[in-house]
Fold each of these.
Amino acid sequence: MLFNSLDFALFFPVVFALYWFVAKDHLKWQNLLLLVASYFFYACWDWRFLFLLMFSTVLDYYTGLQMYDAKSQRMKRFWFWLSVGINLGFLGIFKYYNFFAESLAASLSAVGFHADFWTLQVILPVGISFYTFHGLSYVIDIYKDRIKPERNFVDYSVFVSFFPLLVAGPIERATHLLPQIQSKRVFDRNNAVDGLKQVLWGLFKKVVIADNCAEYVNMVFANSENYSASTHAVAAIFFAFQIYGDFSGYSDIALGTARLLGIDLLRNFSYPYFSRDIAEFWRRWHISLSTWFRDYLYIPLGGSKGGDWMRIRNTFIIFLVSGFWHGANWTFIVWGLLHALFIMPSVIFKTNRNNLEIVAAGRIFPKFKDLTAIVVTFGLTVFAWIFFRADSLAGAFQFIGEMFNASMFSKPEGVRNTTVWMIVALVVVEWLGREQKYGIAKLVDRWPLVLRWLFYYTIVFLIFEFRGSSQQFIYFQF
Amino acid sequence: MKQFLKKTVLFLCIPMAVMLIGLLLPPTPRAEQSLLLVAPIKDSMLQHVKQPRIILVSGSSMGFGLVSQIVKDSLHRNPINTGIHGGMGLYYLLDNTAQYIQKGDIVVLAPEYHQFFGDFCEGNEELLRVYFDNKNGLDFFKLRAVQLKKTYPYIPRYAMSKFIPSQYFNLKTQEFYSKRAFNEYGDVNQHWGQTWPNPVVFEKIDGDYLNTDVLQAVVEFNELVKSKGATLYFTFPGYLEHSFGVGKPQIKEFEAALRKTNLTILGTPEQYIMTPDLIFDTPYHLTKEGATKRTQLLVKDLKTQMQKDHLE
């Protein structure tokens, strides 16, 4: 069930009505309803994988309790590694086994040995990387004595499988989400209206921006040798907007939906394409994953406390693992590696925390220096996205090769004006709203009611009139 | 909460009302030029063309891929080319044709390969438009459940299209994609003699699984045709060489499944591969020369089979 489907438009009002009218005064019933709704939501993709989700939930719930109740450090460690091992084992089997088997076979074949490993014909369960990381953070936090385990199984299950975040995040933390699940929710009209606005903006980003860009990007990447260099460049830029519209649009819908149910989720995007360097980009892109890696990998590895070499080493590790998290393909690893290289100057010269404040805060136009930095940073991310989008490394290098030749100055082929205008509209609105939580949060708040509604109706109209052909959310595959 | 619900319902009611008005308004001038407008005309042909008849069923690969005059001259049967647009979906093509089949008809079914993969057979926006612009809109709700599920999301967009200026002004469209594109047999012939600068090339057949439900629907259609005293032959569309090459694993998977059924199959997919010079604007749309070649191949296969079946 996609957020941008009429199935969801029917599903959600039913959940909303039951949640706020039938189960309103009973927290237990509200949580049980959320759990049933979440499992139904997940089962709509493939009911068989519901058992995997349930198993993962039971595993982390049980090992969390065992760790907390363990009489010795040895037993605590045993339960911890059991949970981590099984969680990563599932991830390894479903997501990475074929990659390792094929890569090993290719390496052996390169040195003259023939090895024929079994490959698995398995479908990747939707959202497995997200709920595995969700569960892992819970288990690690208990092991490190940062939190106590949740003893109510329903509450814990809702924490893992709450449907707005189940398949593509944000990756929540027990310290943030569990207390909200445990406490009584009170309907707040302003919060709900804000949630609806965020859902609307998310739909615009997904349906109008991402899906329209996807049509062009798919056309060029599928048949790149037939297009000019300038067309390649446009496709690469469109992919940058596609993945942003797709993933941040999904996050906006998830956050808005959760707010309608009285729950605040972690913010996942903060206008990443207005970043002035790569370090700032990573503070603004997929924030819940970046902070997860910071807290559960970078800091345990020593963070930046062990001198320059350790900082450099840890930065490379983080980016390579982050790339690999996205998918079992060398393209993702190279994407991560490129970002590690791009961020390296600021790590070495310790300028990675130079741009912490919002760009051009309180002003309409940025300074020339900021604008230049934004354009350069965007250019670097667009270049790296080529690897992220390509099916193989060879395909990525071919695409880049075709992007730099004399036809760079010819007119790009097949670009629809409406797509360009919609991207311009997105950039303008997000720039104007960059000091808020999402693009249109406060943009028209001071306008008279009629104009405000007209503005929202315009977005609704654009969604229906200019929606691209429906595409699966990209991050579902991770 | 009450105020929130009141305002939300009010906010939603306005576009709902606009949408309802959009649905009830007559087709826009642009829609009236669309090639979909021939759907009722082709239905009328299916009702009124005299025996002996041969009905050719598919999407635009049939509309753009047949010279019916050759069929008529060679087989001495009155051809009815029902091909309009693949986006109407194979379920629609089967169900719509089924109601007009008469005793003695020969039905030739040659769907695009895309119809057998994923949910393409359930139809797209074109299916919705056929009903709301050209037929009785209420009949739309009598379609199969899978067709409704696939196409109902297009309702808001369709309704809103009634309020878009481009639907009323600057209506110039390609003649071969208009209602004027067809000859008396239902062939698209407006493009004959023209060339298209950059034909689309399919790099894959969309839809990640072979849809066995639609294959079963074809088998059931065959039973229905037989029960009416008519004969069904299954054959393959003309398809661009390159697109055939990249889609070959899927096409062979489909062919293997097809050959396990009790359908009478004419020829092979390879037989109907078309070189680029015979292609007009998409891998299924043929030039006059392409359509002639395809028709001659089809007639040859048909003659052989009809002799076997004592239908000549």
Note: The interface with chain A takes residues 1, 3-4, 7-8, 11, 14-15, 152-153, 156-157, 160-161, 164, 201, 203-204 of chain B (CB under 8 Å).
Amino acid sequence: MGTISLKKVHKAFGATVIIPSADLDIKNGEFVVFVGPSGCGKSTLLRMIAGLEDLTSGQIFIDGKDVSDTPPSKRGLSMVFQSYALYPHMSVRNNIGFGLKMAGESKEMIDGKVAKAAATLNLTDYLDRKPGQLSGGQRQRVAIGRAIVRQPEGFLFDEPLSNLDAALRVNMRIFIMQLHQDLGTTMIYVTHDQVEAMTMADRIVVLNKGNIEQVGSPLELYNKPNSVFVAGFIGSPKMNFVENNTIGIRPEHIEISEKKGDWQGKVLLSEHLGSDTFLHVDAGARGRLTVRASGENTFAPGTNVWMTPDKSRMHYFDKDGRAIHK
Amino acid sequence: MATQQTRTLGRFAVAPSVISLFLWMIVPLAMTIYFSFLRYNLLDPNYACSLMHPDQLLDGANRCLAGFTNYTYFMTDPAFFKAMGNSLKLVAWVLAISVVFGTLLALLLDQAFYGQAVVRLLMIAPFLVMPTVSALVWKNMMLNPVSGMIAYLFKSVGLQPIDWFAHYPLAAVILMVSWQWVPFATLILLTSLQSLDGEQKEAAEMDGTPPLSYFWYIVLPHLIRPMTVVILIETIFLLNVFAEIYVSGTAGTAGNLPFLVYQYGLIANDIGGASAGGIIAVILANIVAFFLMRMIGKNLDA
């Protein structure tokens, strides 16, 4: 099983507090994504779960067992690193099998498991190559292979796709989701990309300055953000904030027309994506707003337009940025 | 991409250094080869057999031209085999000592500890000491059987001090030369250790790698290339060790090939023989280099 719980986890380097206090419960088989801007402490949190970083105080439980002082290899977790961290002088076969070898498994066992993992990852033809002879995507798959052969209780991914190009990133995203479905193992995935978070996660943990801002399913975060920060971070294009950040409205919840509406404005730019058009509108005192319109929309820059926000989908915030649910 | 113009310009730009290097190497080599075929001894009253009087080289008796006599004489000299053996022993031992201790010291210095910067600086210091100075220090202050530091330590635990230069001259020379070259190996290997990827260390930690396995499977393969560089560079310099042997006065038993050439040329005044010896030393060095490259040079390929 692979439940992971954090209890009052605190991390500080000297006087610098990285994570004030984090509490979190991850269920077995869940795909949890830690998301937040760079420097929000998401990687530190992951590394503490892995055991690569010591806790200043607090506890971490895996399967109900306190592992706060357990060395990384004894926690039953595998990690996929941002740089892949493959051993450059070992063949793909030895890279994947290294953990098993260190665990003292027999040669036949290792060969069998490596062959099986390689088949899952389409790496069978590359087993005797060195990492230097592989492409970025193949290296990524070797790193995943190294993680899965150990049959861990949970997988930890530290921004694994950030070194890949856009097309490959989409493929690997689907591949990892498929892997999660097939294995049913708990996965924790760290990213700064909210699209990755929204598409992959069962539950998203949004971090801001070391604090857990909100935990919830992608749609919960999208529909009911707890704070201005979460509201602004989740969703693309970004939510519009008006009236001194007390009201938020998503670009897709504003209707636009040339004739009538609540707010008047002038089109500055339009981004045509084919399926949608994102209009950047100067709405006078309300500032600059983004509106999502249908792909056929062809408002030229300079056009005067009227916008009507969907009142039922407006988000209200107090002056501290906390959401007011009406 | 280099255009035609920049390539032509580049050739002109490097020409002075190429030409001067060429002269610097080829002229002495050519002269050495030339002398090695002459019966040219400074004590010979007939001083005509030199470059100064090329017109007299072929006198009636043809007594200047030596053919291969210098070579056969040098190579059948019992001192030659002894010197060659000493040369090889010196190189092999110093290489082994500097690679092993260099690795261990580099591992030690790679740890974070208080005063790291100062210790690293001190560590490098022996490499910067002139060989003659180093030999004097070792001869008079460390290995001297009466007033040396080692003798003092021996006496303090009740052992008989050893007169190193009299009884174990080659070991003493190896010790002195190693003292100079271990820091070089340490420096190269330390910089390489510091370039070992942090995430790789962590991956090994996640894989539950015990310390010795970590060294064997992760660190050592990473160090192979810098070790190759250390071995190649040190070999070149170690084949040429001279000052330590000269200053410590151990030539009788620990003399190497360069020293034998010196003895031929500047003690026996036999320029022809010394030149032949020099050429033989060059050939032997090339053979050593060839086998070294064959054995470990492939580590340098990307």
Note: Helices of chain A lie at 42-50, 92-102, 107-120, 136-148, 166-183, 194-200, 218-223, 228-233.
